[in-house]
Design goal:
9 helices; 6-stranded mixed sheet; Rossmann fold; alpha/beta; single chain; globular; 25% strand; 34% helix; 4-stranded antiparallel sheet; 253 residues
Length: 253
């Protein structure tokens, strides 16, 4: 469902030219949940944005659902993939109600039956009709992230990209959101690609894991192998050592 062939992303020019992602190749099968881990600045979020078409990739090929993506994405291509961002407050317009936030992607994609779609999207993420006309500041952090997930899913994309979707939430709420994402993936046969610096969060949702360092994908492994310490690259081992107590309650394939 997601195929990357030697993708690189660069910013700036001349002496200030900077390579954020370097020569990354990756395959994610349909219905799979794949996690990318790495320290801050490793390029994992930039890679996610390149897949979504939010930043251009300088070299290589991004292929989604069997179609090579052009640098400038047409409307139909954008419907293939949606993204949930790290900050659920910053990703929602403060002056728009939940109803307006959910109606916007329907309008962009020219999809009808808005009333039914909005009600169904709220129900799927565990929010009721009472939340529909509230503003973001009237919602808790967990509720705001549920709205962001509903907004991403309302156009029925086969691919969902998750940029640290629980890092801004309380620990008690993180498990609720991860369990929600697990259920939605199963019910809708979604392909998920999630980035995080937290090994436990990745292992909870993703059976397969890639490790990034300085813009490169240095190792691909499984959550089970991480939990057992069966890793090969020194950076992967350093991440494990920096996560004391990680026993890996891991996701199943």
């Amino acid at each position: 469902m997601i195929r990357l062939d030697r993708v690189s992303v660069r910013f700036g020019s001349g002496a200030r030219r900077f390579t954020a992602v370097a020569d990354v190749s990756l395959d994610v099968a349909a219905g799979e949940a794949f996690g990318l881990v790495g320290e801050s600045g490793s390029g994992k979020s930039t890679l996610l944005r390149a897949i979504a078409g939010l930043v251009g990739h300088a070299e290589g090929t991004v292929e989604l659902a069997g179609t090579v993506m052009p640098r400038r994405r047409p409307r139909a291509a954008r419907r293939l993939v949606q993204m949930v961002f790290q900050d659920p407050y910053g990703s929602l317009h403060p002056n728009q109600t939940v109803d307006q936030a959910l109606a916007a992607p329907l309008r962009v994609q020219r999809l009808g039956d808005g009333e039914r779609r909005i009600a169904a999207a709220l129900h799927e993420v565990g929010l009721g009709a009472a939340h529909r006309f509230r503003f973001p500041h009237q919602l808790s952090g967990g509720q705001r992230q549920r709205v962001a997930i509903a907004r991403a899913l309302i156009v029925a994309p086969p691919i969902l990209l998750l940029d640290e979707p629980t890092s801004a939430l309380d620990v008690s709420v993180q498990a609720e959101i991860l369990n929600l994402l697990t259920r939605l993936r199963q019910e809708h046969r979604l392909t998920l690609l999630m980035v995080s610096h937290d090994l436990a969060v990745i292992a909870h949702l993703c059976a397969h894991v890639g490790v990034m360092q300085q813009g490169r994908l240095v190792e691909q492994t499984t959550a089970a192998a991480l939990a057992e310490g069966r890793v090969h690259h020194p950076h992967t081992r350093a991440l494990l050592e920096a996560t004391p107590g990680f026993t890996g309650t891991v996701a199943a394939d």
